[in-house]
């Protein structure tokens, strides 16, 4: 694909149009990982088998995600994990589709929302006091949740040019160094520069991904600190 992938404009469009979101995912994968190929998704039969087992119908957006890239673990499961169709399960009124990497939380869709094509998502923390666990609102739509998933898993791809830095968001003005992207993901800010993608989480965790070793070196120089891999 074209080397000049305009993250800002493409992501802006993807956040407001589901079809454009899947086009963004395909081009994003080609730019940062490998192009999507036939067979990278689960088949209709595999998804329908999961629906029969569960006795429900998946929301259109989740079905589309599984068919497009469900088998691409480099886009879905480097850190947290998108469940396979045969692993989907229901608990306490929600369909669970993704798990935090250490089991600290799970993401789902409330059963009462499954009739919508692109419902909002919820999150449930794994607590010692199980009686206190509750489903809490998360992303406004499954599409946005999938965009965040793909972008986050790419910046955490261990086989790529990635690094991590603890920062103080008040001391490091990333918006002066890089282009801030439209908001994707709770408690996250995203930035892009020449061949680099950055995710700031909770104001102190900075995960970065570069397309080349040289680009990663330039990024480290522009944001001084105790880089984990630097």
Brief write-up:
With 230 residues, the protein is α+β, with helices and mostly antiparallel strands. The protein is 33% helix and 21% strand.
- Overall pLDDT: 94
Structural class: alpha+beta
Low-confidence segments = none
CATH fold field value of the largest domain:
SMI1/KNR4-like
Shape: globular
Biggest sheet record: 6 strands, antiparallel
Order of helices and strands: HHHHHEEEEEEHEHEEEEH
How many distinct folded domains? Answer: 2
Distance between the termini: 30 Å
Q: Could you give the count of β-strands? A: 11
Beta-strand residue percentage: 15-25%
Give keywords.
five-stranded antiparallel β-sheet; six-stranded antiparallel β-sheet; 230 residues; 2 domains; SMI1/KNR4-like; alpha+beta; TATA-Binding Protein
SSE map:
Layout lengths: L6 H8 L3 H15 L11 H11 L5 H10 L3 H4 L4 E2 L6 E3 L2 E6 L5 E6 L11 E4 L10 E2 L4 H14 L5 E6 L7 H4 L1 E2 L7 E6 L2 E6 L3 E6 L2 H10 L8
Antiparallel strand pairs: 1-3, 2-3, 3-4, 4-5, 5-6, 7-11, 8-9, 9-10, 10-11
Helix pairs in contact: 1-2, 2-6
